Structure formats: structure tokens, C-alpha cells
Amino acid sequence: MPQSNRFADYLEIIRQQIRWKRVQPYVLQEIENHLTDQKDAFERNGIDEETAIIKAKAEMGDPVVVGEQLDRTHRPKPDWPLLAMTAILIFLGLSIQFIIGTDIYNGMEMFYKQVIWAGLAAIVFLVAYFLDFTILGKYSLIIYLLLVAITLSDYWFSDVRTTGYNTAIYPLLLFPTIFAGLVYRMRNKEYGGLVLCGAAVIVPALLGLLIHNSTVLFLIGTSCLIILTVAIAKGWFNVRKLYALIILYLSSAVTFSIMLFMMNDYAWNRLHVVLNPSLDPTGAGYITTLIQRLLLHSRLFGEGLPVSDYGQYPISKILPEANTDFLLTYLTYKFGWILFIGIILIFLAFIVRSVIISKRQKSVLGQLVSLAIILTLVLQFLTFVTSNLGFMLFGPVSLPLISYGGRGLLINMCLIGFLLSIFRTGSLVSDDTEVAGIKSSRLIQYENGKIIIKLKATQ
Prior knowledge:
- This protein has a two-stranded antiparallel sheet.
- The protein contains 23 helices and four strands.
- By secondary structure, it is mostly helical.
- It has helices at 3-6, 8-17, 24-44, 49-60, 63-73, 80-101, 107-130, 135-138, 140-157, 160-163, 169-172, 175-186, 190-210, 214-233, 241-262, 265-275, 286-296, 315-318, 327-335, 337-359, 364-388, 406-425, 440-443, and strands at residues 429-430, 435-436, 444-447, 450-453.
- The two termini are 38 Å apart.
């Protein structure tokens, strides 16, 4: 007679008390295993099988009480501070777009579009938030190939002449997260797995070159390099750490050198102007020079001092893309450095808390994916801030959740949804099964003939 049938009635009562269906099979499996162990112990002491089953159930306790206690303990745990900060950033972004909309041409029309995008982004966020994030580990290769196909189709069908940029940059922002799933699948595969992970970076890097966006290329390369460094340092590839790190950084240096060698004269000249905008203040260095002038005339509170070179024109007339690429420059000049500082502090609070919770994740998958998402958000934020401070080595892509743009908002809300999904359920993920589960050593213990259920979940 199968063990599950012997305890079916008892286990069914426990199952009915546990509302989170995703965790039911693993809790019930653990309880059944320990009921079987206890029954076998009674039989070894000379008790017949039927009596041993009854006594094992009695030792475990009332199934209703046990189920209710497990239900209270093993539930998804939302991180309310991060949810609140996400809502604040969305509201702040819409408020800023409304204010700018009254100041720039066609601004209110763009504001209404952003409201619609925000509604769609909220739906995307909820889908990602309630989705099982472990699919990134199980189906990482399929998702990787699908993302390559989406990026290529987006590249070919983007109307660059109308939009002024290629929208394929936004799907590329998902690559570090998918790459984290590939690294998870390649763990314990030694140098072969490490080489395959390195090869997986080549395709998104080539796509970054194809769309001529150095910022996205920098974001992908830096994120993947940090992810591999962490994976090697933690011993997840089962290789000699020093040798593996030397191989990783030497190959990265060679790749970077080749890319520099392939740069044409225009790219080199642009780099020189970025480092010294005074070389071409009315051409390639115009935006950098303008930003520096505006920031020098900005005050701590209120609108900045007039910039004599531009007469009495308002900032919205002289600063292009005030609601997108150079949003922070506009806000700093228009309302003072205090608003710039406030936005920076909110982002820092979000990132710091995300890093703290990410370090608590017990599973390799949870650590890798959360690291990848945090890196994607941080690098977008850093490149946006530095470019808005007048250092244009890497142009701005998006100020997550605040700057104007529907695709960027959708992608970033999707990433944040996955991040909070990890923080919500990550403590119940087991690397052994690659799905949500509870390790027996945490939930149930057997000591001195007694079954002990640990009702406090480990964080």
C-alpha cells in the first residue's frame, strides 16, 4: 500500500488549510516523509502497522492546527517599503511629466500618453510580480533566443527617422537578467560552463554595436562581467577561482581592445570632444557645454540665474529633450539642486534596500537574478545622472520610472516586478529542485522520537 494512501486523509486536511497552492506539494511531501519515518520507528518497537500509522498521526498533532500554523508561517512576504518606493517613483515621474508638459511644446499630449503607458506598466509589473521567477532558471535558453529574435525584429522595424533612435535598445535591457538565468543553468559545469556563459554575451554585445548605442553595450558588458565575477568568487562553477578570474578579465580586456581598434575616426573625435567639449562647443560639444552652463547658474532652491548667452529664452526653449534625456538638468535649473538631491536619495534608498534583501537570498537563482536586475537599474541610473551632469561619455537611456518614454517604463517595471517577486517568495526557493520548495532541515526535525515542526520561517 503506497505511503501517500496511508496518510491521504491526514495530508488532505493539512492541504486544505494552506492557502498558497504553490507551496502545498513540498510541505505535504515533507510531512509525509516524517510520518513514514515515525511509523517505521513504531513498527521497529513491535507495534503493528495500523496502530503505528495512528500513533504517527497523533504524534504529529491535529491536522487542522498543523495546517493553520503552516499557513500562517509559509506565505509570500511582500516587501512593503520597496513597493511603496516604486509607487512613489511612478507618481513622482507622472507629476514631473505634468509640470514639464505645461512648459514644452506638445508636452501635455506626451503627458497623457505617459499616463496610459503607466497604466500598462502597472499591469506588466503585477504579472511579473506574481509570476514564478524560477522560470528564468528553467527556460533561460528559450527566453534568451526569444529575446534575440524580438530585439532583431525591433531593430529592423524601428522607424529611426521618425523617433530619432532605435527602440531595440529597450529589449536589450532585459539581457543581463536572462544572462543570470543562463549562469544558473551552467553552474557546476566547470570551465565549459564558464566559456558558454562568456559566449552568451557575444550576441547581445553585437546587437548593441548594431544599433550604435554605447550605453547599452556598456550596461550589458559591465553587468555580465560583474555577474560572472560573483559566480566565480562564490564557487558556483567549481573551478579554480584565481585562474577563472584571470581568464575572464584577460578575455574581457582583449575584447575591449578589439572594440577600440575597430572605432572609426568619427568615434575617436567624438570621444575627444566628450572629454573636452570646448574643442567643438557649437557642434558635438554643444549639449555638454549647455548643460555645464545651466548647472553653473542653478541654485539650491528655485529657478537658476539667467544664462546671458541665451538671452531671455526659457530653459524649455534652449534645452532639447527636457522631459527625456536631460530631465535632471531641466529640473535642477528650473527648481534647484534640492530636487536633484531628493530624486537621488529616493533611488539610493531603493537600491540600498534591494541590495540588502538580495544578499539574504538563500538560493543561487535568487541571488543571481536579483543581482542582474539591480545592476541594470543602477547602471541606467548612473549613466543618466552623469550625462545630466555634463559628462557625456555614455549617453542617457532612461531614468527608471521617471523620464518620459513608454518602452523604458514597461521594461523597468517588468524588472522591478521580477525583483520584488524574488524578495516575496525567494526564501522558499530550493536550488535542488529549481522550483519553490522547503528544505526539510528548515521545516521539520526528528529528535528523541518526537517530530518537531519549526513554525518560524527562516529569512
